[in-house]
Design brief:
Elements (H helix, E strand, L loop, with lengths): L1 E7 L9 E7 L5 E9 L4 H18 L7 H25 L7 E2 L1 E6 L3 E7 L3 E6 L2 E4 L6 H7 L5 H5 L20 E6 L5 E5 L1 H4 L4 H9 L4 H14 L6 E7 L8
Antiparallel strand pairs: 1-11, 2-3, 3-4, 3-5, 5-6, 6-9, 7-8, 7-10, 10-11
Helix pairs in contact: 1-2
Length: 249
Amino acid sequence: MKAVFKTDRGKIRQHNEDNGGIFINSDGVSLAIVADGMGGHRAGDVASGMTIEFLSKEWEQTTDILTAQDAEIWFKNQITKVNQLLFDHSAEHLECNGMGTTVVAAICTNRFSTIANIGDSRGYLYNESGFKQVTEDHSLVNELVRSGQISREDAEHHPRKNVLLRALGTELQVEMDISTITFEEGDILLLCSDGLSNKVSENQMREMLVSDTDFTEKAAALIDLANQYGGEDNITLVLVQLCDESESG
């Protein structure tokens, strides 16, 4: 399995409130995460950082993720715990009041990938059927699209595009989406913050993933493209590809 994580402050923001990483447990199973923090006084980077720290430490101690059900239960339990952690921290530290973060994470095995998400950080899958988004944004604009009130084209330029309906750590109870997809040799999973998806089209993402460039260079090129188009937000992504043993790096 090939995997690369990359994050960039972008061209406008003074701080990077995104976080993420790729973590491998003792069974050799990968956990990939992207978290896009939000909140005043740099509390966003506290929220995203605490999320990554908690989930990565829990993952290091996790074994026997053998089935999709195992992975789905792990996400439900651990994301619920980290939501409580963030909510309590926000209540106890005035400077972090109202902080939260999006999260999109994937447990990747050589048979399946289980994906959990809250907010508008996204997961995409490239496979023999093409390239498609495999998560649903928890945003006001996406609800307007789903209900038929606006078109997807209108959504791209909607003035309330950044309004989230769900985030990790902002409420005592959290609702997450969890799904499992087949993950086969050659498939590529892309997880990213909206700093990428708001700037780079799905066609451009697909073209970059199928290009002949090195796997790490694909990630760097996607970041560069988002910056070329303005880079107003932090930009973070993870790429994971299932490949045969001779190709893995």
